Each structure stands twice: as structure tokens, then as C-alpha cells.
Structure prediction request, 71 residues.
Amino acid sequence: AILFNPDTSAVLAINNTGLELWRALANPTSPEDLVTLLLASYEDAPAEQLTNDVQSYLQALLPGGFIGQVL
Prediction:
């Protein structure tokens, strides 16, 4: 899938897992909730790895303005 932000003209290609996370972000959610979502799909994956992957994914979305950060 390809994400496009018309406000910034940013483009980002994402895989199927990224698309699953992107759809989950349609509603307010936490990084922990995203990890739980992935754990349901990838039961054999270590939670620590999924946590790192989710954090990396979210960090990739920030610069293009695809998501905002709530402190």
C-alpha cells in the first residue's frame, strides 16, 4: 500500500503489516494496543521485537505528517 499526505506531499510505501497497523490507527490507540494487535496475528513473534517494530513504524509515519504525536 502507499500512503500519501496531500498536506505535505509525503509518500510512504507500507507492507501488509503496516497496512494493518494503519487501519488500526483510524481510531485513537496506543503503541501498546498496536503490539497487542500484532501479537494476535503473529503469536510466535517475541513481544519485544513487535514493540520495537511498532515504535519504528510510528517513527516512520511522523516526519511525513501521517500521524501526530500526543504527549
